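Structure ticket #2291
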Amino acid sequence: MIGVAYPKITHHGRRILTIFQDEPDRRREDAGGNKHVVERPLVGAEIGVWRGRNSATLLARAPSLVLYMVDYWGDQAAPDNGQSIQKGEDVCKEAMNETSFAAGRRRVVKEASPGAASRFKDGGLDFVFIDGDHYYEPCLADLRAWWPKVKRGGWLMGHDIDNPGWPEWGVREAVEEFCLGEAVRFVCYPEPEFVFAIRKPLL
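Resolution: structure written out below.
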C-alpha cells in the first residue's frame, strides 16, 4: 500500500506522520518517492480543519487512516487584514475537494469543539490533533474534552504552540496547565512545525 501524491504537504502533518512511523515506514519510500508514509491502520481526529490541507496530508500519506474531520466551518475574518470575511460554507467545500481522493476514509463532523467530543467513545482514537481555537480557555477546554477519547499509548497533539506570529494566543499556557493536572509531559517541535505532542500513558 502506498501514499497518494499530494503537493501541499503541511509541516505539522509531516510531524504527525513521523510520530507514527515505525522502522519499516522510515526505510520505505513508495513508488512515487513519497516520504513520511505510515502503513499501519489508524483512527484519528483533526479538530479545526478549515481548508483541509492538513487532513489531506494525513489521508494522503497514511493510506489506512480513517480520519474524523471536526469543524463547524463558521464565517471568519480573513487573516490578511481582518476586514474581509471568509465564508465558512465556501471553505468547507474547499476542504471537501482537498480530501475528495479519500472520501471513503474521511468522516466529516460539522460541529464545534469541544461539544463534538461527546460523539466519540472513550479510548477509541489513536490520535487527536487540535488546531481549533488557539486562545487559552478554548484550547484548554479542547484538551480536556478530547483526552478521554485517545486510547492508551495514543497521542493528543496540537498546532501553533510558541508561534511568534501570534503572541496573544494561549496554547502553551493551556498545554502546561493540562499536563500539570493530568501528571503527563509534552514534547514541542519548534518552527516551522509548532506542534506539541502528549502521549497517553499505557497504564
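Closing remark: The chain has a mean pLDDT of 91.
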